[in-house]
């Protein structure tokens, strides 16, 4: 009799716990915790990068309070001829409203950015009449990946893997320095305009 009552009580407790756990969305709990961490510490402002002329640039000094589009670029990629003109249009349209575009040349994808920093600068400035915030050539994947790009990948995960898959992967960063979205190389810059406008209005 005692054993039967004990087992019955245990079963009732188990059923109650199981019912309670069904109502808990653990994904929401995890996301809420992560978002709190992002708001507190995880911003691009903690990083330094060399510009195309090899001068150190503190991200917090130039991008605080601005929306930033960060892109890994290449001069000889099939996406080059569409991305640069479209980014130019976005910058001309929204620069005075708080948009910055930070371009990081990278030669890791089929050696499509083989030139020197000054050759890259001349190509972008003269061929496209485009003057973004241009940085020195870096790695975005592997043991020599720039810390800023490691941070971006950790904050905004990729499809299947977090590694940058090709040239012209794009990250949007809000006015608080927090990466809020990641876009594939096939996502043309003009498609980001609605999100950029929304971030500028926040």
From TrEMBL:
Residues 182-202 are annotated as: Disordered. Residues 38-201 form the Thioredoxin domain. The keyword Cell cycle does not apply. Gene3D superfamilies: Glutaredoxin. SUPFAM superfamilies: Thioredoxin-like. The active site is at residue 77. One of its GO terms (molecular function) is peroxidase activity. InterPro entries: Glutathione_peroxidase, GPX_AS, Thioredoxin-like_sf, Thioredoxin_domain. Pfam families: GSHPx (PF00255). Keywords: Oxidoreductase, Peroxidase. The keyword Ligase does not apply. One of its GO terms (biological process) is response to oxidative stress. Residues 184-202 have a biased composition (Basic and acidic residues). Belongs to the glutathione peroxidase family. This is Glutathione peroxidase.
